[in-house]
Amino acid sequence: MSESEAREVGTQIESARAGKVTRAMEEVGREEGMEGEEVRREVACGRMVIPANKRHTNLKPIGIGVGVRCKVNANIGCSPGRSDVEEEGRKLEVCLRYGADTVMDLSTGARAGEVRKELLARCPVPFGTVPVYDVAGRAGGICEARGEDFVAAVREHAEAGVDFMTIHAGLLRRMIPLALKRRLGIVSRGGAQLARWMEARGAENPYYERFDEVLEICHEYDVTISLGDGLRPGCLADASDAAQFAELEVLGELTERCWAAGVQVMVEGPGHIPLHEVAMNVERQMRVCKGAPFYVLGPVVCDIAPGYDHISSAIGAAVAGMAGAAMLCYVTPKEHLGLPDVEDVRVGLIAYKIAAHAADVARGRRGARDWDDAMAEARRGFDWEKQFKLALDPERAREYYEASNVGEGGRDYCTMCGREFCAVRASQEVRGGRG
C-alpha cells in the first residue's frame, strides 16, 4: 500500500463500512477475480481481512477470508542458539519464490529485532509477528515484565510496519488449571510465557486487561489482530477439551471488541486434532467468532510422525480448508525436532500449497480447477515444459524428470512405465483406432 493510500483511509474495515472501496480492496479484487464492491462487503462484515499496516509501503495487499482463495502462511525466524539475519533472509527468499501468501517472523533471542527489521524491509507480502516473544526475551525474562511492557511491544512492532500480530489475549488465569490437567499442558510458546507471568504475578493476562490499549495501537496503524490460541492442543489426547473451548469463547468476545473498535481481526486455531474432529473445530470457531477468518496451524492429525509432520499436518489442513478455514499456517518436517532450515521451509510450504489448493477445489473457488485441468491437458499431450510451468514446484518437477529419463525417456513417455506400457500413450492409440 502506498503512502497516499495510508493517508486517505482510517482502517480497511472502517472504509468498507463507510461504503468506500480502497485501492487495497481493488487490488484484492483483481487478484481474486472479484469486483471491488464484493471485496468491500466481505471486509465490512468482518469475513475478510486485508492486513496492511500503513507503514508497510512496499506491500502487495491480499485478502484473507472464506470467500477467497485459501491462503498459506510461512513461519521463519531465528532462535537464541540458531540462525542469523542472512539465513533468515534466505528463508524469506524461498517463501516468496514458492508462493507464501504471508510470512511470520517468530524470532526469539537477542537478534530478534535486527532480524525483524531486515525481513520486513524485504517483504512485499503481509508480515506478522508475536510481540510477547520480545517481552519474554528481554532482560530478566517474562516474569519481570510490567503490564505496560506487553503493550509497548505491540506499539514497537506496529511502528515498524508489521501487518498482523498474534495477541494471546484469550488465555485467562482461570483457564490455567484446566490446561494443566492435560497430557502436554500448554504447548503454545506465547501462551506458556503468559501463563508463567500470570502465575508469578498472581494477575490476569495483561493482553486481556489492556486490550483497549492494544486496539488503539492497531487502529492507528491498521494492524490486523490475529487472536492467538494460547491453549491449542499439543497432542490428540488434549484436542477439543475444556481448556481449548474456554479460550475460544473469550476469543469470540474479543472478536466483537475488535470490530467495535474498527480493527480487523482473524482468529487462530488448534494444532493437534484427530481427523474426524477437524471440521467440527472449524465450524465451531466460525459460529463462536461470527464468521471472522479462521487461521489454523495444521492441524496435525497424528502424533507419531516426527520428521514428516509437514505431511501429517497438511492432511488436517486440507480438511480444515475444505470446512472453511481461511488461512493455513504451514508446518515443516522439523516440527517438534528443531529450527527449520531453508529446505525445510521449501518442503513445508509446498505441502501447504497443495493442501490450500485442494481446499479451493473442494469449495469450488473461482478458477481453482482450471489449473488442474490445464495440467491434465499438458499430460495428455506429453507437453513436459508446460507441466513444469504449471507445477507448484517447477524446479523439483524438472529435476525428477531429468534425473529419471536420461537416455531413456521420449517425448511421448517417461521411465515410470516406458514406451510400451505407457497408459496415456496406449489410450491415445485406442482413441485413434476408434476414429
Mean pLDDT: 95
Structural class: alpha/beta
The shape, in one word, is globular
What is the name of the CATH class of the largest domain?
Alpha Beta
Percentage of residues in helical conformation: 40-55%
The CATH H-level superfamily of the largest domain is: Radical SAM ThiC family, central domain
Largest sheet: 8 strands, parallel, barrel
Please count the helical segments.
21
Strand order of the largest sheet: 3-4-5-6-7-8-9-10
- Uncertain runs: 1-7
**What is the CATH topology of the largest domain?**
TIM Barrel
Rg from C-alpha positions? Answer: 23 Å
Query: How much of the residues is beta strand, in percent?
Result: 5-15%
Query: What would you say the CATH architecture of the largest domain is?
Result: Alpha-Beta Barrel
Please tell me about this protein's structure.
The structure is a single chain. 51% of the residues lie in helices and 9% in strands. It is α/β, with parallel strands linked by helices and 435 residues long. It has 2 domains: 46-362, Alpha-Beta Barrel (TIM Barrel), CATH 3.20.20; 371-433, no CATH class. The strands form 2 sheets. Strands 3-4-5-6-7-8-9-10 form an 8-stranded parallel β-barrel, surrounded by 6 helices. It starts with a helix and ends with a helix. Mean pLDDT is 95; it is low at 1-7.
